């Protein structure tokens, strides 16, 4: 993980899904701004099989604000789920510019379905709609180009979330975090 500028310690790391936190490890990892680190996560009990887990990095204690999150990933072999392949961490994006979102359906279970929402997310705190909002985008399309809103925080990390309903279940998938500049 690569902490934001000004971050000197990480207070906790949570393994989370659409349900409340599955496991949280209070940590006090000292970090150097601008330096990336690797941290091995060892949950106390095996997590349930799921295609949409994320790691959330928090400041100010285990219930503090989220300042970073991973892209969604799979634990076990759930037999379903989407993979968001773009944007990636080194994406060069700017306010008012275009952003290509790409995804894969490795299990071919989403044919005929459309996304219910595409959202830009600022560190799990602020959900920002794209304007105009993408509507009726079929999963089979594999990609969608959107326009990044104006007025965002400059040089700040964001990620994209896509939502859909399959078999009466709401599913959410997230991209890697990336920086948006020139705001």
Structure description:
The protein has 183 residues and is mostly beta strands. It has two domains: 9-75, no CATH class; 83-181, Immunoglobulin-like (Sandwich). It is 0% helix and 45% strand. It has no helices and 14 strands. It has strands at 9-16, 23-30, 50-58, 66-69, 73-75, 83-86, 92-94, 98-104, 117-122, 126-129, 143-147, 156-166, 169-174, 178-181. The strands form three sheets. Strands 7, 9, 10, 12, 13 and 14 form a six-stranded mixed beta sheet that branches. Strands 1, 2, 3, 4 and 5 form a five-stranded antiparallel beta sheet that branches. The model has no long low-confidence stretch (mean pLDDT 79).
Largest sheet, in brief, is: 6 strands, mixed
Structural class: mainly beta
CATH architecture of the largest domain: Sandwich
Proportion of residues in extended strands: 35-45%
What is the count of helical runs?
0
Question: Could you say what the CATH topology of the largest domain is called?
Answer: Immunoglobulin-like
Average pLDDT across residues? 79
Low-confidence stretches: none
Q: Provide the domain count.
A: 2
Supply Rg.
17 Å
Distance between the termini: 24 Å
The best one-word shape is globular
> How many E strands?
14
Helix proportion range = under 10%
* Highest-level CATH class of the largest domain: Mainly Beta
CATH H level of the largest domain: which superfamily? Immunoglobulins
What's the order of the H and E elements? EEEEEEEEEEEEEE
């Amino acid at each position: 993980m690569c902490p934001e500028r000004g971050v000197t310690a990480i207070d906790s790391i949570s393994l989370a899904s659409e349900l409340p936190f599955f496991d949280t490890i209070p940590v006090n990892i000292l970090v150097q701004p601008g330096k990336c680190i690797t941290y091995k996560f060892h949950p106390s009990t095996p997590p349930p099989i799921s295609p949409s887990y994320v790691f959330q990095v928090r400041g100010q204690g285990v219930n503090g604000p989220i300042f970073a999150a991973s892209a969604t990933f799979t634990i076990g072999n759930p037999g379903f789920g989407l993979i968001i392949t773009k944007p990636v961490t080194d994406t060069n994006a700017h306010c008012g510019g275009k952003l290509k979102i790409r995804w894969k359906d490795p299990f071919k279970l989403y044919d005929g379905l459309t996304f219910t929402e595409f959202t830009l997310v600022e560190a799990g705190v602020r959900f920002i709609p794209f304007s105009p909002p993408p509507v009726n985008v079929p999963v089979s399309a594999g990609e969608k180009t959107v326009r990044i809103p104006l007025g965002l925080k400059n040089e700040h990390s964001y990620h994209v979330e896509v939502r859909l309903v399959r078999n009466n279940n709401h599913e959410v998938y997230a991209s890697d975090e990336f920086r948006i500049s020139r705001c």
